[in-house]
Amino acid sequence: MRHFQIYLFFFTCLTALSCNNKKSPDISKIKISIPIERFDQELNGVNPDSIEVKVPDLRKKYTWFYDDYMEKMISAGNTTDTTYYSNLRTILRNKDYLELRSTVDKTFPDLDKQQLELDQAFRYIRYYYPKQKFPRLISFISGFAVQTPIGNDYIGIGLDMFLGKNGDRFYPALRQSIPQYISRRFSPENISPRVIEAFIREEMFPENDADRNLVSKMIYNGKILYFMDAVLGDTPDTLKIGYTTEQLQWCKDSEAGIWAYLLENELLFESDYLKIQKYLAEAPFTPGIGENSSSAPKLGVWTGWQIVRQYMEKNPDISLQDLMLEKDAQKILAGSKYKPRD
Q1: What are the phi and psi torsion angles at 157 (to 5°)?
Q2: Whole-angstrom Cα distance, residue 201 to residue 9?
Q3: pLDDT tens-digit profile of 74-104?
Q4: CA–CA distances in Å: residue 97 to residues 62, 74, 144, 180, 191
Q5: Residue environment code for 98-125, b if the CB has 16+ CB neighbours within 10 A, otherwise e
Q6: pTM of the model
Q7: What is the DSSP letter of 296?
Q8: Angle formed by the axes of helices 214-231 and 329-336, to 10°?
Q9: E-strand spans in the chain?
């Protein structure tokens, strides 16, 4: 399992790619469906007293995911050593786990809505990238350890981290490790954008470690979000980036000021991690911009998105594939002619 990051990644377009006047492609003839496998429900069906009999079949079915789940998500132990059975038995009998399991079952008796959303997104991806391989989708409960992990052949969906209001009994207790500005996005409508974002970032277009200055990171993030525009249909921008409606409006109202701040402070080509991280990272706001901590977070990411959108609008002959292949962030910035005005 390579990544256990919570991808909690913004300007409203009514339909995909409407911002750059490009029509969404016809995907009606693309037949692809990746079922969301309910590992959580299958594990729930295991009687703790018969673990030794039942779980070997689960391990055979879920392979890499099963081992990652037992060893790294719930810390039951190494699956090559059957002593992990006793730890798993303890977990399945734990009162808190049983309460969480019950809440997940009530919140997600099925994942039909998410299935439809993800199937459509993967059809768009197949349209643009016909040879792209797709992962298994596996839902689980980890006790708030991880949200959308990516493994050798899967993307996991940690349902306990998408409970919405049903999670209110649990999430406040997590504040020391997961602040409220992140946990407020643990809602069912975040499942599809978080899964797709994880897949795009980690499987299709991982970030180049050599791109260290702020403008390179801005454009990279902008390309990821533009790709999400292309494949997530009518998904609101607030869900794509994880903003509140108020934060999104603040960005719209302050776009020229944000850009002026970055230029005046000569930040675009700054590569000092400590200096630029606050413009890219999850936070309640972006320090140094706005009054009384009123700014939206990760303004470098949001601005990069607007630059990429404008670049594609100014250059209608450039395809999505061309955009994702382009490694020169300065070329995209120059080609966008990005100069927001008050």
Answers
A1: -125, 100
A2: 11
A3: 999 999 999 999 999 999 999 999 999 999 9
A4: 21, 11, 11, 22, 21
A5: eebbebbeebbeebeebbebbbbbbbbb
A6: 0.91
A7: P
A8: 70
A9: 36-38, 136-140, 154-158
